[in-house]
Amino acid sequence: MVSGTFTSVIVLLIILFLFKEGAGLFNQTPMEKGYVVAVNSSNPVSELSPAQFKDVYDGKIITWKSLGGNSDSIKLFRVDDITSYYTEEQIGSNFEHLGECISKLVQKTPNIIAFFPKEYADSSFKGKTINLKKITAWSFVSEKEWFPTAQPVAQFGVLSLILGTLWVSLAAILFALPLGLATAIYLAEIADSRVRNILKPLIELLAGIPSVVYGFFGLIVIVPMIKNIFHLDVGETALAGSIILGIMALPTIITVSEDALRNTPRAMKEASLALGASKWQTIYKVSIPYSASGITAGAILGIGRAIGETMAVLMCTGNSAIIPHTLLQPVRTIPATIAAELGEAAQGGMHYKALFALGCILFIITFFINLSVELISSRRKGGKNE
Amino acid sequence: MNKIETQNVNLHYGDFHALKGITMSIVENSVTALIGPSGCGKSTYLRLFNRMNDLISNVKIEGDVLVEGKDIYERGVDVDELRKKVGMVFQKPNPFPKTIFENVAYGLRVNGINDKEFIAERVERSLQQSALWGEVKDKLKKSAFELSGGQQQRLCIARALAIEPTVLLMDEPASALDPLSTAKIEELIYELKDKYTIIIVTHNMQQAGRVSDRTAFFYMGELIEADETKVIFTNPKNVRTQNYITGRFG
Ligand SMILES: Nc1ncnc2c1ncn2[C@@H]1O[C@H](COP(=O)(O)OP(=O)(O)O)[C@@H](O)[C@H]1O
Ligand SMILES: [Mg+2]
User: Per the domain annotation, does B206 fall within a domain?
Assistant: First the structure.
């Protein structure tokens, strides 16, 4: 009782800490400190998202039209470019006129977008400074690009990471469920007790192997295999991660489904057999439907295990933060991202906070998974009394 | 004519000798009651005829069990086919967690029958035979679990009848039911015996007396005596039968 309360309090504190750190990311602008973005005062555009600005900066967006302005092309100005517009004399040997020059340049170039240190955008500056949109919970989960160290604006969009995680985990279940269910059926309905007594502990042993060992196995066996079979340049793909995760989820799926199958009342099976149904018909028409909720719970628990898994996927999936379209592309999952980047992120910085926010998302996903397992198994208990 | 015969049947559960050299005949289109104290092997004997004991590991069966003259424990016997011919009703009602209709249709479907009209017709007829049709005809799509215990048991009888067996095994079919439901089941047995060979296990002496034509008394794995019911009840040859009948033990 006391220890239960104690544990709950600790867990609650950890969750609070996670969310507090994560929430620090929001309402900030991911712009390099001390810099501003400005445009000509006639330009209708007054706000850009971090992603839009990065695309402008990288030359991927080249007209104002796509940013809500007129159809002019975009003229990007970085402070280093100043020498191509003004002579050293005009700027001054100690850059004392730099501010004026930038102001003039911005004023006479309608299609300009200028990126320069804040100190030159003082009260005499004639251009219009642009607001970079703040990071919100929505922009965090809906933006695609994850590039927390990008210059001059870091990109904190985790959609590709969320999708990568779900994609790899769902594919893992697609492999693991048929195999796990078949094994569970074999153990529960077909194997005699001797075989079962050997196999069952072996399968449970699988659950105890450290995930880095699975990762290692994936790296030296599965990854090269996929590379050869599909003639890819790199074998580190979503598929490799899914297969490894599928193997890792197997013990959960097998154990939970087997339990559920064995819980099918003997009377139901006997009723079916006594009506001339074959053993397989009985498994298919009685045992599986009867234990459907248990099997579902097993599958969801397996997904839960796969979603939170870090090491093995980190080693096998190639870790590129792109939205995957096929299983043969590299992907990056949330746990792998956190594990790989937390060491490099400056403590208290945006990157650091963004990783905590990612942790919150992972927590929310697994929370709902566990909740659904609870719901399914409570419904099962409710439905069992005839 | 004898529908079923057992010749010197011995059954072991592991080391436990549960049936000891049973030789007995069961007459076609009659009701045979198996009586005896709890644990004497009635259920075990009954489950010989549809090979339900096969499901238990460690069972060893010797001797001949002939159904319609054929040894059903011979190599190559199709057990699923046998079970279509020899239907069974269990002690506790055990409908499937399906609709009333699907419960009765189950045996037809697993036997590869898909013709909707045929199935509907057979379901109705079976429910009529088990005297349940009037009570359920408006709620065939409802779950079987919504029925009372007595109705569930009659549903299980309908389910067994739907595949037109010729033998019906009933293992204490009314022991879990109230007196009114019990009376209905007994009435049903009486009506069914024209067409079916029925073997019923019961621990209820009055019931055996009311429904059966022949009665067999088992004691500790042995068949003590089998004869016409009225002979067993009025003039048993064996003293143990007499003691049991008169309630002196068991
Ligand atoms: N699966 C089994 N394994 C071992 N012993 C069993 C099994 N089923 C029944 N028995 C034993 O066989 C004897 C006969 O059982 P059963 O046929 O069920 O008796 P009855 O139906 O007359 O009460 C009992 O002593 C019982 O304990
Ligand atoms: Mg019994």
Answer: yes
Question: At A380, is the pLDDT very low, low, confident or very high (cuts 50, 70, 90)?
Answer: low
Residue nearest ligand 1's atom 3 by CA: B13
Residues A119 and A163 occupy one common structural domain = no
Domain count, chain A: 2
Query: SS3 of B185, please?
Result: helix
DSSP H or E segment with residue B233: helix B229-234
Residue range B117-129, pLDDT digits in tens:
999 999 999 999 9
Mutational pocket test of ligand 1: of B43, B58, B169, B172, the residue with most ligand atoms within 8 Å of the beta carbon: B43
Q: What is the pLDDT of residues A13-32, one digit of tens each?
A: 999 999 999 999 998 888 88
Round to whole Å and give the CA distance between A197 and B134.
Answer: 51
- Cβ-based neighbour number of residue B150 at 10 Å: 22
Q: Give the distance from residue B51's alpha carbon to the nearest chain A alpha carbon, in angstroms.
A: 9
Give the number of beta-carbon pairs within 8 Å between A and B: 67
Chain A residue at shortest CA distance from B161:
A275
**In-domain check, residue A142:** no
ipTM for the complex shown: 0.93
Distance (Å, rounded) from C-alpha B119 to C-alpha A375?
37
Contacts of A113 (CB under 8 A, 6+ apart): A37, A38, A39, A56, A74, A75, A76, A77, A130
CATH number at residue B8: 3.40.50.300
Chain A CB contacts of B106 under 8 Å are 272, 275, 277, 285
* Calpha distance B72→A143 (Å, rounded): 70
Token couple for A297: 């719970």
- How far is the C-alpha of A173 from the C-alpha of A171, rounded, in Å? 5
Q: Which residues pair with B22 in a beta bridge?
A: B9
3-class DSSP state for residue B53?
Answer: helix
Q: Give residues with Cβ within 8 angstroms of A219, minimum separation 6.
A: A315, A316
Q: What is the pTM of this model?
A: 0.81
pLDDT higher than threshold 70 for residue A381:
no
Give contacts of B52 with chain A, Cβ < 8 Å: 270, 273-274
For residue A49, give the nearest of A35, A62, A68 by alpha carbon.
A68
Q: Does residue B177 sit within a domain?
A: yes
**Does A225 fall in a domain?**
yes
- Residue range of the domain that includes B130: 2-245
Domain that holds residue A60: 35-133
Tokens read off for B105: 């249709």
Confirm whether B192 is domain-assigned.
yes
Q: Is residue A6 part of a domain?
A: no
Confidence (pLDDT) at A383:
47
Summarised one tens digit per residue, pLDDT across range A70-91 is: 888 888 988 888 888 888 888 8
User: Residue A336 and residue A311: Cα distance in Å, rounded?
Assistant: 7
Distance of alpha carbon A20 from alpha carbon A349, whole angstroms? 14
Mean pLDDT, residues B241-246 taken together: 90
**Ligand 1 centroid to residue B39 C-alpha, Å:** 6
How much is the average pLDDT of B55-68? Answer: 93
CA-wise closest residue to A179 among A212, A203, A155, A159: A203
Residues of B with CB under 8 A from a CB of A: 50, 52, 55, 57, 80-81, 83-84, 87-88, 90, 92, 94-97, 106-107, 110-111, 145, 156, 159-160, 163
A230-243: pLDDT as tens digits: 999 988 999 999 99
Residue A307 contacts residue A165 (beta carbons within 8 Å): yes
